[in-house]
Write a sequence for this structure.
């Protein structure tokens, strides 16, 4: 594998830490993905131990750049929030931690930003030359802003206040499940949410991701906004692919 055409992506999630080498010309895994369960006490050091174990299993060239997603705000490699992970991550220099533990060039990135970048480069937004907003509807709402292929990091648009509520508390897929909303009722809430984003940003395209995007036929057509909405294409590979892509571009620069 050439470092110019390949990189490694790692996706740190609540239940599993997954990694694979990525062919950056195609935006696809170039070998089988490896998955190891996330430790119960997922502190930075414990997660770094699992990532180190994952790389032992992957057994890849050490010259390949590595991208690792973090479910939190990441500024210059330092984690700035921990809504759904151990609070010991706050102010942790994840870039330095993983670089030292793996003895490899590492770039860390917010998980939604990684997924969004992958969709913009290889997936549902690859033909859009304007402003794309990628949202992931799951336990919360992740977001990524990409303008003409360039990522604007840490948008955190799931935490906008909409009608007096944190947006994701009413519009995430977890809210639909928790409140047993019909697809139609959930689409009404999504209309309010996406209409707010539309008013603030005037995007050219919305890409709707998250596991529920597999059922996009049940709700996307019911969302009443002017901006086109399309389901994500890369699904559960997006985080790994996007992290690898960003690592490659960061390493080259």
């Amino acid at each position: 594998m050439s470092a110019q055409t390949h990189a490694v992506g790692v996706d740190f999630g609540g239940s599993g830490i997954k990694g694979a080498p990525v062919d950056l010309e195609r935006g696809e895994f170039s070998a089988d993905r490896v998955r190891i369960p996330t430790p119960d006490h997922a502190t930075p050091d414990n997660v770094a131990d699992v990532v180190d174990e994952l790389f032992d299993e992957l057994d890849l060239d050490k010259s390949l750049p590595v991208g690792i997603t973090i479910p939190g705000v990441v500024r210059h490699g330092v984690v700035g929030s921990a809504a759904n992970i151990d609070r010991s991550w706050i102010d942790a220099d994840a870039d330095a931690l993983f670089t030292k533990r793996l003895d490899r060039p590492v770039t860390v990135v917010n998980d939604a930003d990684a997924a969004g970048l992958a969709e913009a480069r290889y997936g549902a937004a690859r033909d859009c030359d304007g402003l794309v907003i990628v949202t992931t509807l799951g336990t919360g709402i992740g977001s990524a802003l990409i303008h003409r292929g360039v990522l604007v990091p840490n948008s955190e648009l799931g935490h906008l206040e909409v009608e007096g509520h944190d947006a994701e508390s009413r519009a995430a897929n977890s809210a639909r499940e928790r409140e047993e909303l019909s697809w139609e009722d959930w689409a009404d809430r999504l209309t309010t949410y996406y209409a707010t984003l539309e008013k603030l940003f005037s995007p050219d395209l919305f890409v709707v991701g998250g596991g529920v995007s597999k059922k996009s036929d049940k709700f996307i057509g019911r969302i009443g906004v002017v901006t086109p909405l399309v389901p994500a294409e890369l699904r559960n590979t997006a985080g790994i692919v996007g992290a690898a892509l960003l690592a490659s571009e960061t390493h080259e620069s």
Notes: Helices lie at 44-58, 94-102, 111-122, 167-171, 173-178, 183-201, 238-252. The mean pLDDT is 94. Residues 126-233 form a domain with the Nucleotidyltransferase; domain 5 fold (CATH 3.30.420.40). The two ends are 20 Å apart (CA to CA).
